[in-house]
Amino acid sequence: MMFNCPLCQSKQYVQFHQDKKRTYFRCNQCLLVFVDPQCLPEPKQELAEYRLHQNSLEDEGYLRYLNRLVDCVTPHLNTDAKVLDYGSGPCPALAHLLNKAGFNTDCFDPFFGPHEIPGTSYDLITATESIEHFHTPATEWRRWMALLAPEGWLAIMTKRVLSAEKFANWHYKNDPTHVSFFSVETFTWLAREYQLNVIFPDRDIVLMQKLA
């Protein structure tokens, strides 16, 4: 069965890895690694998996983890910046931290709500452990570009693909809801395609600024 890369729509890709449960491909153009479309989980399966997560505002380790992103991006923001936490989950801890830091923060999550994005323009869009769940990352990315104000920032946390050898033994790929895997090269392609500046301040953080 022929299909397109879910990020750049190219039909040029190669098999990257295969295990007992799924086959993974890597796009020749944007270098996204993605699962065979036939292996994409159903919404009920995704929701059941997400409900297993035990993140909470009382978990100091989780808050420290999220504060790494807050510390990276807030120096780039004005105090009146409008923020959207995209994929905020059942416990919007990142939004809590951003509000605590003085930023007016909206939340959006397709499973747990809010199910509608209240604003039309944001100075910062955050996505922590979200983009690896995207079945159609091109659609999500175009939505972000429409919502992001000129000179606005994207702040993303996701573990990155390093090599085929490391991918084979990578626990991150084993989550059945993880279906899109990004690398430095993929983010560099996105920056070029959408006219963004890109910064890699940490091993699992990427900041991208809209140029216009």
TrEMBL record:
<keyword id="KW-0489">Methyltransferase</keyword>
<protein>
    <submittedName>
        <fullName>2-polyprenyl-3-methyl-5-hydroxy-6-metoxy-1, 4-benzoquinol methylase</fullName>
    </submittedName>
</protein>
<dbReference type="Pfam" id="PF13489">
    <property type="entry name" value="Methyltransf_23"/>
</dbReference>
<dbReference type="GO" id="GO:0032259">
    <property type="term" value="P:methylation"/>
</dbReference>
<dbReference type="InterPro" id="IPR029063">
    <property type="entry name" value="SAM-dependent_MTases_sf"/>
</dbReference>
<dbReference type="GO" id="GO:0008168">
    <property type="term" value="F:methyltransferase activity"/>
</dbReference>
<keyword id="KW-0808">Transferase</keyword>
